[in-house]
Design goal:
By secondary structure, the protein is α/β, with parallel strands linked by helices. It is built from 4 helices and 11 strands. The protein has a single domain, classed as Class I glutamine amidotransferase (GATase) domain (Rossmann fold, 3-Layer(aba) Sandwich), CATH 3.40.50.880. The strands form 2 sheets. It has a 9-stranded mixed beta sheet with strand order 3-11-4-5-10-9-8-6-7, sandwiched between helices. A hairpin with a 4-residue loop joins β9 and β10. One of its GO terms (molecular function) is anthranilate synthase activity.
Length: 211
């Protein structure tokens, strides 16, 4: 990600089990990235609460487990699927969300054994990408109005085509997003900020059952 040519975008990494939604609000980040990790959304620390309380107020990108966490926070079910770790597959997309400007079919790196149950996805979440050989396998989703975006694959993987562009698209959308003018849990209101994004990392991401 770049905010100036040749310069990386500064971020702050925090553990999902080390802080609360209220502490994140106090940090006032310009965006939130919820990282991959082991297990399911219920084991992702504050991540579910972050989506439930901050969607529409702070732009959110969920990757792998973060993608599943977004779906769960909106009421969808996350179910067990065939393990796919370190595999590249073709994905089709709508050219929206983080996929803007990319070829209509791209290869992405998968590292997961859980998946969002497409039959339970609420109308507030749009499917933005899916496996080329299985339209029910959701590989991207978004609540465009609230600037909440998720991808089941790893855009940072060398197996993923156009991964850097996806991060750049998200940052661009985050910069254009107007936060919902609603009170926070402390009663203050959210304002546009130039404070760097934060990345919420998951405990135990180095091992265990994968998301």
């Amino acid at each position: 990600m770049e905010d100036e040519p040749g310069k990386g975008l500064q971020t702050k990494v925090v553990r999902s089990d080390s802080l609360s939604v209220e502490q994140i609000i106090e940090m006032n980040p310009s965006a939130i990235v919820i990282s991959p990790g082991p297990h399911g959304p219920e084991s992702a620390g504050c991540s579910l609460d972050v989506v439930q309380h901050l969607a529409g107020k702070i732009p959110i990108l969920g990757i792998c487990l973060g993608h599943q966490t977004i779906a769960a926070a909106y009421g969808a079910k996350v179910v067990v699927g065939p393990p796919m770790h370190g595999m590249a597959i073709p994905v089709n997309h709508r050219g929206a969300s983080v996929f803007a400007g990319l070829p209509s079919t791209i290869e992405v790196g998968r590292y997961h054994s859980l998946r969002v149950d497409a039959a339970t996805l609420p109308k507030s979440l749009q499917v933005t990408a899916w496996a080329a050989d299985d339209p029910t396998l959701i590989m991207g989703l978004a609540d465009h109005q609230r600037c909440v975006h998720g991808v089941q694959f790893h855009p940072e993987s060398l197996l993923t085509q156009g991964g850097l562009a996806m991060f750049e698209h998200f940052i661009g959308m985050a910069q254009r997003h107007q936060p919902e003018n609603q009170p926070s849990p402390q009663g203050s209101r959210f304002q546009r900020t130039t404070i760097p994004p934060i990345s919420i990392s998951q405990p135990g991401a180095g091992g265990g059952a994968k998301s």
